[in-house]
Amino acid sequence: MRSIGLLGAISIGIGGMVGGGIFAVLGEAVSLAHGATAIAFAIAGLVAIFTAYSYAKLSVAFQSSGGTVTFIDKAFGDNILSGSVNFMLWLSYLVTISLYATAFASYGATFFSQNSTLLTHILISVAIIIPAIINLVSASFVGKSETVIVIIKVSLLVLVIVMGFSYIDTSRMSPVHWSAPLSIVVAGMIIFVAYEGFELIANAAEDIKNPTKNLPRAFYLSVVIVIVLYILISIITVGSVSEEVLMKAKDYALAEAAKPALGDTGFIIVSLAALLSTFSAINATIYGNARLGYKIAKDGKLPKFLMSSKKDIPFNGVIYTTTLSLILANSIDLTEIAIIGSASFLLLFFIVNISAYKLHQEIGASSIVTIISSVMTLTALVILMLHTYSSNPHAVIIFGTFIIISLLFELIYGRYIRGHMFQRRYKK
User: Fold this and answer.
1) Interatomic CA distance for residues 160 and 333, integer angstroms
2) pLDDT tens column, 400-409
């Protein structure tokens, strides 16, 4: 029985996007785009809205909890591409958990008089381990708490926007303070991970009422609302706080943006909101990724050990998701995590857009729009990788390693282990 209305579907999209991303990458955007930070968020939003078109068309045609995985399978069948993408998607969510945990640590450290590397690692680990325990003990808490948390964090962001408008110095956003056009685009691509999350609507497609109308509306409205929210937050941040101050507070820039209008109380309120948002985002992503692994494993595309469950909780999936996230979050810095996360989802969204183009007649999509969407995501990915290669080659190496691991996994597991299992079943 379908139980989610339009508002509920929009909440899923907004909740997925306004998780921990904006708290984590705002300072990164300012450091690259400077006075043009709002434009960087708008560019990233444009890529997101075009990709949302593909998701909307595919979701209506193929209503499945598999979402992205289902779309790519429908377009390309069971081959090395679809198998590798399944694993890549699972890895990508590990990166987002790491991003949220690092942001949690950055904001959490502001409540301590002295910061240290040890404190950072402790906070990162706590931010991942406690949500993992919650998932193992009471998975229902995740779903029940998300709607309330979405309302709280969006309300606090709106409060910062409304209270901060009278403190804006428009000269700080003058073109003389903008970065070079390419740097603005690169900034938009690095922070693209802040828009990752709207695709979660597709996973709920089977439960959404009147899906033919509500699915497209939910995708478009959630992305547009978040674009407007991010642009306004960018304007408040850049317009009311000097760049020198923002760069000193790069990892918790949004809390600093609340100070001009709300003082130290505003700083504390936003920091607490960041902790709540990133914590809930980690909670929900562990929940979703463990179940994604369970579903893919159940379909035979991941090892069987991810299928282990206790009382409807994918126990092994939670354990592996938690362990790998802890390793990633404690070994890669925030900038690299943001780059890898954005690159991973740009690649996945490019493949989804290609899937929509390949199936455009079947799903009733415009071939022109899906081509534009595909070109935009591919161009964004190439620009991001070229810039990153010259400024942070380590991040490119890690991203390349993710791709190689995904391909090797499918080649080894998919072609030999899974293939032999299917052959044995066929012979029987």
Assistant:
1) 28
2) 998 998 888 8
